[in-house]
Amino acid sequence: MYTQALNAKDAADGGAEDADRMARFQARIDAEERIEPNDWMPEAYRRTLVRQISQHAHSEIVGMLPEGNWVTRAPSLRRKAALIAKVQDEGGHGLYLYSAAETLGVAREELVDQLLSGKAKYSSIFNYPTLSWADIGAIGWLVDGAAIMNQIPLCRCSYGPYARAMIKVCKEESFHQRQGFEIMNTLAKGSPAQKAMAQDALNRWWWPSVMMFGPPDSASQHSDTSMRWKIKRFTNDELRQQFIDATVPQAHYMGLEIPDPALKHDAESGHWTIGEIDWTEFKAVIAGNGPCNRQRLRQRREAHESGAWVREAALAHAEKRRRRAAAAVTAAAAE
Amino acid sequence: MTHDPRFLFALRLADDALILGHRLSEWIGVAPQLEEELALANIALDLIGQARMLYAHAGEIEGKGRDEDALAYLRDVPDWQNVLLVEQPNGDFARTIVRQLIYSAFMAPLWRGLKASADPTIAAVAAKAEKEVAYHVRHAGEWLIRLGDGTDESHARAAEAVEELWPYGGELFEVDEAGRTLIAAGIAMDPESVRAEWNTTMDMVLAQATLARPADGWHQSGGRKGRHSEHLGHLLADMQFLQRAYPGATW
């Protein structure tokens, strides 16, 4: 879903790479050709993609937790089935994305270890809690809505496997976004208690969603290389503005209020402008000091550790079968 | 309280499917591996889908305006008719798999037979459910074989799960007066008619899993009469919370 890694800078910039190959590589990218797993690529390009794709995968996996928190309490059978299916889609996105990362020569186990050890990041939006059913609507509407803004351009990412994975992911995300909007709209048009639930969820999820696009362009010098390599095609502020312009009228349509007293419509540019973003909160959550950072990682670790005996059993059984099959072949040959 | 036997029949099938689907959905976020998390969610979705069709049908038979959500969210423990097996907690992964196999190995031949039900809605649900449950049997069976014939630890856990849950299998085969009426009318199937296939499936899987089959005999009972284990009340408290806290709201 979430591509916070777009804002991270790679340490080395591949300066030592062969200049000719670099030039040919850049020419292919400029010509909008896709780079495939067996093609030559600068090490920094590979590392950037591994980091971005794996963080994206981790975000899908951790993102299953806040929504999973409401699966058993979904208020109708239709909502329950839709939420299970949505969380399942996210797990599926995690799987494609880990596979896309594996095409760059890194094993899924290694990536999962990086997540569980706390070394790898995931989208910090999932470090906020889901306190009411309306949060399930808000996540679909706002968080998936923001994710789509980030991800649609990724369908044209220069790295082929990532771009192709994104096409399928985007289709499902846009379905999730509509589903989230529909949950919010139902609540907003429901009883006063339901409408209050929807407004409270919007109040809590609005600013974290706006922050999902990362630091303002003025403070972020990191995307130049990613832009040149066509891993990233729009700046943080461009994408953020697209999201705000799409979302504010939807909130108004539902009769909900965006929690920003400074919000105003600029008739000249046609854009909605927002007030100051509290970047200290964003930095704190990224640094590990959000409401649920420790809880989310603990749950992933506990699931991994308590499932170890199951994974070991599957491997041990596969090995027994292999040995039996080999013994049967040997016995048949001896007869 | 007397109900139309056809209502009870659809309700019982629905309650089994929903409660088990709900239990499986509790694995989201805590499954032993990602692929299995998706598989358990898939099975949960199949079962919840079956339950929805069956509740809609039960509500129509009853004719009191109760829809799927009224039946799922507004009944308390004594009105639930599911077998005790499906409400048993997930426990470790071995328990979940054994519970699934006992149920699915029973339902696979039952749904196959119910495709010929004199009730066309039941027959239509059966046609869909048969394919789904055949996959559930394969999935649970393959896992039980891996666990039983895996490591010492997985074998011990699988053996314990089989011992623990075996006494809950017998209730699936119970028939009461309502059931007998429907069997005679060609709407329901006599569960005895699927016992041989259930035995064959269980024996085959247990043998490959190097697990002993516990003795039959005494079994746990009561769910079909609304006498449940302590676990169901907690499950319903969780599942029904929003509908109970905000009566009459539309979601």
Compose a concise summary of this entry.
The complex is a heterodimer of chains A (335) and B (251). Chain A has 335 residues and is mostly helical.
Distance between the termini of chain A: 58 Å
Mean pLDDT across the residues of chain B is: 97
Nearest-angstrom radius of gyration of chain A? 22 Å
Strand content of chain B: under 5%
Shape of chain A: globular
Poorly predicted regions of chain A: none
Q: Biggest interface pair, residues each? A: A-B, 46 and 48 residues
The share of residues in helices of chain B is 55-70%
Enumerate the strands of the largest sheet of chain A in spatial order, edge to edge or round the barrel. 1-2
**Overall outline of chain B:** globular
Distance between the termini of chain B: 30 Å
- SSE-based structural type of chain A: mainly alpha
Content of β-strand of chain A: under 5%
CATH topology annotation of chain B: Ferritin
Question: Helices and strands of chain B: which structural class?
Answer: mainly alpha
Estimate nothing, just give the exact number of structural domains of chain B: 1
CATH homologous superfamily (4th level) name of chain B: Ferritin, core subunit, four-helix bundle
